[in-house]
Write a structure and sequence with these properties.
Oligomer: single chain
Distance between the termini: 64 Å
Strand content: 15-25%
Number of domains: 5
CATH architecture of the largest domain: 2-Layer Sandwich
Structural class: alpha+beta
């Protein structure tokens, strides 16, 4: 238990405090103008704390702090630490790391447009995040029809390529820069137009295209003028559908919130040049016991920490915590003044009421969906209990799968589902150490043995044991998994094998397979869990194989030894990323210098 007496030695300076439990896990991150006063407020005797805060305080074993020069610096650090640790007691943007972004690779001669889940400092432009992935992909399809830029990953450093243009060129979704059909300047114009569209500057883009059309017509370049005309017509059709929301034509984000029991729905309407161009709903978890001002502030900090565009005005329903510090932080990120406004009357008040109504509808839909999922998963677990003759409901199910290439780089995956839903923080991966060649049976045994042995030894990451173990495979794979359990005296844990070919279920106590009804929720749940284990195993295997290939290539570069190879592998995710990196970016990698960075760059760019 944490000794509150230690707080007397805390400084009365701005900074971030990090609360940990007895296992050393970070459970809360907060910022303070005065570290000493803020942390002390959690331990004042006689003061009633909200239930959630009281529970958190009872689990605190240690508190660390980091002093900063200002409240704004503390805010930035707090954002980074929450994103990194995702602490149990912080208000968290649900699955924020999963939200997709549109990326334009402006660090290339002929940029590509692609969808990514992670923002990097690689010189590219990012737009998002987007919750509605389908709508985002539809927008990309529309953009590529109007402004046909490439989506392929071909290296276009040396043009033209000898190969023929791909199908996208023939169906007018690409201008085929690979064949030298378009200059860098002309191609750059297409990229600039897409960026303007994604930033919401559609009216400005329309004026720009009209000026280009007139310029082309005056120069008697009628084909070019016709292209601009078609782009203008397509854009005008999109713009017609958008609602006028503001008469002052200022870029705004309008944010409203509706609360559920332990969640809140934040809906953001993006207003650009006076028109609503997009709407995105977000779900926040762990809001029980927090007041509205705190929830709004938490969302704004997490959302704008990675947002690709920050507007001049952010309109909210009510005053928020840390308003001045957040405005200062956002203004620094944008490079110009950003204001957070709470409207009392007029069109902005009407607009935020409309956004709040949308938030209410989305939260209701989300809660209805989650309730349907709870009912469906509850039925699936009841069916599994009955079909398999289990003693209790299989609330926690773990599944194992093996992936390798002809016995090399063999890996195992373990996924965990609780109450029918994936619990991704409990997913685990294993490099197979003791098995030579393509032997899935021994590999399964090794992975299962290691997983449960670590749990028995008290490893916090493996402490929760399953109510049912699912092995991807038939009788053979199941037998080896059961051997591992018996060696650890854990043969009371029910285990099954799920064979892919006929979806037969094998159990040790039954000579014949169990055939679940094709339309049963039990079978659907098992298939979902098995498929997720397979996906997770294959993804890990591909990552290791890619790292191995990259390592062997890096070994050929003079001056790049073991330490630098490891640093490059940690800094860049793929060979493609290293090839695209500039000398300056390479030299910033720990352990690299200008000379070694130049060696890597020249290796990949030699004539």
């Amino acid at each position: 238990m944490f000794d509150p007496g230690r707080i007397d030695s805390f400084p009365e300076k701005p900074g971030v405090y990090i609360m940990k439990d007895k296992s050393g896990k970070v459970i809360y991150v907060g910022k303070a103008v005065s570290l000493k006063n803020r942390v002390k407020s959690y331990f004042k005797s006689g003061e009633s704390l909200p239930a959630k805060v009281s529970s958190m305080v009872s689990h605190i074993e240690d508190i660390e702090y980091i002093v900063t020069d200002s409240e704004v610096e503390a805010l930035i650090l707090e954002c980074n630490l929450i994103k990194f640790y995702r602490p149990k007691y912080n208000i968290l943007l649900k699955d924020d790391k999963q939200y997709p972004y549109i990326k334009i690779t402006t660090n290339e001669s002929f940029p590509r447009i692609e969808v990514v889940r992670k923002i990097k400092k690689d010189g590219s432009k990012y737009f998002g995040p987007y919750v509605e992935a389908r709508a985002m992909r539809e927008a990309i399809d529309v953009l590529r029809k109007i402004f046909p830029i490439r989506s392929c990953k071909k290296d276009l450093d040396r043009l033209p390529l000898k190969e023929r243009p791909c199908l996208n060129y023939h169906i007018k979704l690409c201008t085929a820069p690979c064949q030298g059909n378009i200059s860098e300047e002309e191609y750059g114009e297409l990229v600039k137009n897409i960026a303007m569209f994604l930033e919401g500057r559609k009216e400005q883009l329309l004026d720009h295209l009209k000026a280009k059309m007139r310029e082309a017509a005056n120069s008697l370049q009628f084909e070019a003028a016709a292209v601009y005309r078609d782009q203008i017509v397509a854009l005008e059709k999109i713009i017609e559908k958008q609602k006028i929301s503001s008469t002052d034509l200022v870029d705004q984000d309008v944010i409203a919130m509706v609360r559920g029991f332990d969640t809140a729905c934040m809906t953001v309407f993006f207003v650009r040049e006076g028109k609503i161009v997009e709407r995105e709903p977000f779900i926040l978890n762990n809001v029980e016991g927090a007041d509205r001002k705190e929830i709004l502030a938490s969302f704004i900090k997490q959302f704008y920490d990675t947002a690709s565009f920050i507007p001049k005005e952010i309109i909210v329903e009510e005053e928020i915590d840390e308003k001045e510090a957040i405005e200062t932080w956002l203004s620094a990120k944008k490079g110009s003044k950003v204001k957070i406004i709470v409207p009392k009357r007029g069109e902005k008040k009407e607009l935020i009421e409309m956004v709040a109504e949308n938030a209410m509808i989305y939260l209701k839909q989300n809660e209805d969906f989650e309730e349907r999922e709870r009912i469906k998963n509850g039925k699936a677990m009841e069916e599994l209990k009955n079909y398999l003759g289990l003693e209790k409901l299989p609330r926690r199910i773990e599944a194992f799968d093996i992936s390798n290439t002809q016995g090399t780089e063999s890996v195992a995956s373990m996924v965990a589902f609780e109450n029918g839903m994936p619990k991704k923080e409990d997913y685990r991966r294993f490099k197979i150490r003791t098995v030579e060649g393509p032997n899935d049976f021994e590999s399964i045994k090794e992975a299962v043995f290691r997983r449960f042995k670590r749990g028995l030894e008290g490893d916090e990451k493996f402490k929760n044991f399953p109510d049912l173990l699912v092995i991807d495979g038939g009788k053979g794979q199941l037998r080896y998994a059961l051997e591992a359990l018996k060696e650890l005296n854990l043969n009371h844990i029910p285990a099954i094998g799920l064979a892919k070919e006929f979806e037969h279920v094998f159990m040790e106590c039954k000579s014949e397979p169990i055939i679940l009804p094709r339309n049963s929720e039990a079978l659907y749940l098992l298939q979902k869990i098995r498929d997720e284990a397979h996906r997770f195993a294959v993804a890990y295997h591909r990552k290791l194989r890619s790292e191995k290939n990259l390592k062997s290539i890096l070994e050929e570069i003079p001056g790049i030894g073991k330490v630098r190879r490891k640093a490059l592998l940690n800094a860049f995710e793929s060979l493609e990323d290293i090839k695209k990196a500039s000398v300056e970016e390479l030299s910033k990698v720990p352990g690299m210098n200008k000379k070694s960075a130049m060696a890597v760059y020249e290796y990949f760019h030699k004539a």
